[in-house]
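Q: Hi! First time doing this. I have a protein sequence and I read that you can turn it into a structure. Is that right? Here it is:
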Amino acid sequence: AESLGQQLVAWDRQPYTLLLYGGALTQQMKYDDAMAVYQDVIKQSPNNPVALYDMGVLREQKGETDHAIELYRAALLLRPNFAAALEKLGYLLSNKGDADGAIQSLSRAAEINPFNVTTWNNLGLALFRRGRPEPAITACENAVKLNSNMPEVHANFGLVLAGAGRANDAVAHYREALRLRPGWNEVRTALDDLLKRQGKAVETGDPVR
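A: Yes, that's right. Below is the predicted 3D structure, encoded as structure tokens:
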């Protein structure tokens, strides 16, 4: 039997409906099916920035980061103020070691949508990697203000603060990250290493929720 999504797409093959269906397929990790849907959209609407962005998300989830970067850039040529594409592009560029490109993309994304916690979080990390601790701290502070219950925000802030020589503050954020996500080994290791450098005893167990 056909799924509801298949029935809907068979009835309505407009780009908007197809993009919704492609996104659902991507979430289900049905990548080949999703790509076929997006290619159908491109045939109908060659200059559709959302389709290019969604194809980039798909490629990114498959681990094909170079292809994803190309698609995000193509989407931005058509829609320069596409905040989600700027954020995704900046994240991938940062991970590839292009800190300047990442900062440019993420800063622009933050200007367009200053309420996206992921943008500020990734911008803080990119600035830190570029050796700019003070603006990195400001970006991380913005991320925490937007969502203090996101463990990744505290983990990154801990890393940035440790690099800026604010060990006690870094410890506090590492502890908060572990409280929110118990058993996070990378953060536990970072916290233990920082405590050892301070000459303090390594803690056992995660902070209590």
